[in-house]
Design goal:
Layout: E1 16-20, H1 22-39, E2 50-53, E3 59-62, H2 65-71, H3 77-92, H4 97-116, H5 121-143, E4 145-146, H6 152-163, H7 172-186, E5 187-190, E6 193-196, H8 198-201, E7 202-208, E8 216-218, E9 221-223, E10 235-237, E11 241-244, H9 264-286, E12 292-295, H10 301-309, E13 313-315, H11 320-330, E14 334-335, E15 352-358, E16 361-367, E17 375-381, H12 384-406, E18 409-412, H13 416-429, H14 437-447, H15 449-457, H16 462-474, E19 481-484, E20 489-492, H17 493-496, E21 499-501, H18 502-521, E22 524-529
Parallel strand pairs: 7-17, 11-12, 11-14, 12-13
Antiparallel strand pairs: 1-22, 2-3, 4-18, 5-6, 8-17, 9-16, 10-15, 15-16, 18-21, 19-20
Length: 551
C-alpha cells in the first residue's frame, strides 16, 4: 500500500525475515531432500556408517537414522521437522528411522514438479491423503501375512532382517538370540493385558574389554556394586533376598536439631539409643535369616557389624531402577520399613548370588532365576563407541521382537512391500479422475526410492535392476520379490527370509506421508529478529507492503 507521494508503509518489524509463497514451498522441499540425502547411504545391509563429533568432543559412530539426526544441528525449520519424525518413529516402534526420513524426503521431492506447474498444495495433499489410506489397506490386505509368535524359527528370521542392516550384522545369530531372549523374558501377561517393557526391565550393561562374542543375556540381574564389608560372603547359592528402601543407620534430624544435655550421662545415653535403634532394625532383618540384603540407602558400620555376625551379605546404595529389576527377577517385594518385613516379601526365586571382578570393577550378579521377569544384557566389546553402537542395534532388534509379539503380522522386506504397493497404486491411479491422479501416481513413483537406494548402496545397476523388478511385480503373485541388499540383484524375500513387522512398515508410511502433507501446507515463514552480526539467519529485511511480491 502506497500513500499518495509518500514512502511505503512498513507492516512487519524491520528486523524480521519473511519468505512466502512458492519460494517457501520449494525451500521446504529442498530442505527435506537435503536431510534425506544425509541419511540415504545408511539404508540396507551394505550401509555406511557416519562419524559425528558432538560439541563436547565426544564421538558417535552409527548408521541409525535417529542417532545421526539427533547430533546434527540445522537452521531450517522444515529440516527440524524432518529430524523430529525420526525421533517419533524411534519412540513409537523403535525401527525404520532411516526409511522414514528417506520416504518423507522423496514424497516432498516428487511434489516439486507439481508446485512448479502452479498446482495448488491442497490438491496435492488430498491426493496424498487418499494414497495413504490405500497404502495402508493394500499393505494389510494384499502384502502382509500373519505369523505364529511361538514359532522360534520364524521370529528369528524377522529379528534377523532388522539386525542385518546394522553393524552387529557379523554377529547376527548371537544378536538375534539375545534380543528374543530378553524380549520374551520381560513379557508379562496379567488380566489379559500384555506388557513388554523393554526400556525398564531389560537393562543393558556395557563393560569395555573382552570380545563381542562374550555378550549374553543373564537370567537375572547384574549391578555395578560390591559388598559393603570385606568379610561378607561373595557367593551364595539359592539365596534368600531382602530388598529394602530404607537406610540401615541412625536417622538424622531433617533440618537443624538442637539437643540440650543437662548431665554428662545424657550424651552417652543418646549414643546408646542410636546403637539400640540400629541393633533393632538389624534384628528385624536377621529374624528372617536372609542371605543377601539390598538397600537403596546407606548402611552404617555398626549395622554392617551385626549383619556380618549373622552371616548376611549386604549391598548398599542400589539404584531404584536396579532394585525394581531385582524384585522382578527373584520375586521379592521392596519393603520401606524393616519392622514391616514379612516372610512373603523375601525373594526365593534366584539360584545364585555372586560377586565377580570384570576389568577393574566389581559386579554383583543375581542369576539363575526360576522365572525372571527382568533381565540384564551384558555387552562386551573393544571400545565405548562399539558398545554404544551395539546397544543401539540391540534396542532396534528388541523393539522389532516386541512389535511382532504385540501385532503378529509381517510384510516382506528388501523393498518388496514398496514395489508391490507402488504397483497397486499405479493401477488404482487409472480410476481416479481429474488433476489429483498425477500426485497420486507420483506416490507410487516415490515408494520406489527404497529399492533404488538398496541397489545404489551395494553398487548395483540401478536402472536395469529396478526395471526388472517393476516387470516382476506386474505379474500377479510376485509380491514378495525385492532386492537382495547384499548383492544388489532381484530375490524372493520368502527364500531369503527377510521379513519386517507390519507395525513398523505402516508407522513409517503414516509418519512420512503426514510430514510431507504438513510441510506442503506451509506457505509463509516469518523468522524473528535477525542476528545483528549478519551471520546465521540474517536475510533480506522484511518486505514492505509496497514492495513487489517475490516469486
Amino acid at each position: 500500500m502506497m500513500g499518495p507521494g509518500s514512502a511505503p508503509i512498513v507492516v512487519l518489524n524491520q528486523n524480521t525475515k519473511r519468505e512466502s509463497g512458492r519460494k517457501v514451498q520449494l525451500g521446504n522441499v529442498n530442505a527435506a531432500k537435503t536431510i534425506a540425502d544425509v541419511i540415504r547411504t545408511c539404508l540396507g545391509p551394505r550401509s555406511m556408517m557416519k562419524m559425528l563429533m558432538d560439541p563436547m568432543g565426544g564421538i558417535v559412530m552409527t548408521n541409525d537414522g535417529n542417532a545421526i539426526l539427533r547430533e546434527i544441528t540445522v537452521q531450517h525449520p522444515a529440516a527440524k521437522t524432518m529430524i523430529e519424525i525420526s525421533r517419533t518413529q524411534d519412540e513409537e516402534v523403535g525401527d525404520g528411522t532411516t526409511s522414514v526420513i528417506i520416504l518423507a524426503g522423496e514424497f516432498m521431492a516428487v511434489s516439486q514438479t507439481f508446485l512448479e506447474q502452479q498446482m495448488h498444495p491442497t490438491v496435492i495433499i488430498s491426493a496424498y491423503k487418499q494414497a495413504l489410506e490405500d497404502l495402508v489397506d493394500i499393505t494389510r490386505d494384499v502384502v502382509s501375512k500373519t505369523i505364529d509368535v511361538t514359532d522360534n524359527e520364524e521370529m528369528k528370521k524377522i529379528v534377523h532382517s532388522s539386525v542385518g542392516t546394522k553393524f552387529i550384522n557379523k554377529w547376527a545369530d548371537m544378536a538375534v538370540s539375545i534380543a528374543l531372549d530378553a524380549t520374551k523374558t520381560v513379557a508379562l501377561e496379567e488380566n489379559g493385558r500384555r506388557e513388554i517393557d523393554i526400556k525398564r526391565y531389560a537393562k543393558v550393561e556395557k563393560v569395555p574389554g573382552g570380545v563381542i562374542d562374550d555378550c549374553c543375556v543373564l537370567r537375572g540381574v547384574m549391578i555395578n556394586k560390591d559388598v559393603t564389608h570385606p568379610r561378607m560372603k561373595r557367593r551364595v547359592e539359592n539365596p534368600r533376598i531382602v530388598l529394602l528402601d530404607c537406610s540401615l543407620e541412625y536417622k538424622k534430624g531433617e533440618s537443624q536439631t538442637n539437643l540440650e544435655l543437662m548431665r554428662d550421662t545424657d550424651f552417652s545415653r543418646i549414643l546408646q539409643l542410636e546403637e539400640e535403634y540400629v541393633q533393632k532394625i538389624c534384628e528385624d532383618i536377621i529374624r528372617f535369616k536372609p542371605d543377601v540384603v539390598f538397600t537403596e540407602k546407606g548402611i552404617s558400620d555398626l549395622a554392617q557389624h551385626y549383619l556380618v555376625k549373622a552371616n548376611i551379605t549386604a549391598v548398599r546404595r542400589v539404584r531404584k531402577s536396579d532394585n525394581n529389576r531385582i524384585a522382578r527377577a527373584c520375586g521379592a517385594t521392596i519393603v520401606n520399613r524393616t519392622d514391616e518385613l514379612k516372610e512373603e516379601d523375601i525373594g526365593l526365586g534366584a539360584g545364585l548370588f555372586d560377586i565377580q571382578k570384570i576389568g577393574d570393577e566389581y559386579f554383583c550378579f543375581v542369576t539363575e532365576c526360576k522365572d525372571p521377569k527382568a533381565c540384564t544384557i551384558l555387552l562386551r566389546g573393544a571400545s565405548k563407541d562399539i558398545l554404544n553402537e551395539l546397544e543401539r542395534n540391540l534396542q532396534d532388534a528388541m523393539n522389532v521382537a516386541r512389535n511382532v509379539m504385540v501385532e503378529p503380522r509381517l510384510v516382506p522386506g528388501g523393498g518388496a512391500t514398496e514395489m508391490a504397493v507402488a504397483q497397486a497404486l499405479n493401477e488404482k491411479a487409472k480410476s481416479i479422475t481429474g488433476v489429483e491422479q498425477w500426485p497420486y501416481k507420483a506416490i507410487s513413483k516415490a515408494l520406489e526410492v527404497i529399492p533404488r537406494t538398496l541397489i545404489q548402496n551395494c553398487g548395483g545397476n540401478t536402472i536395469r535392476t529396478l526395471t526388472a523388478l517393476r516387470a516382476k511385480h506386474t505379474q500377479p503373485g510376485n509380491t514378495t520379490w525385492g532386492i537382495d541388499g547384499e548383492k544388489g540383484i532381484l530375490a524372493d524375500m520368502n527364500e531369503l527370509g527377510v521379513w519386517e513387522p507390519f507395525a513398523v512398515k505402516v508407522q513409517t508410511y503414516k509418519t512420512a506421508m503426514e510430514t510431507a502433507m504438513l510441510l506442503l501446507r506451509i506457505d509463509d515463514i516469518v523468522s524473528g529478529t535477525k542476528k545483528a552480526s549478519g551471520g546465521e539467519g540474517a536475510g533480506t529485511p522484511a518486505p514492505t507492503t509496497g514492495a513487489p511480491q517475490m516469486d
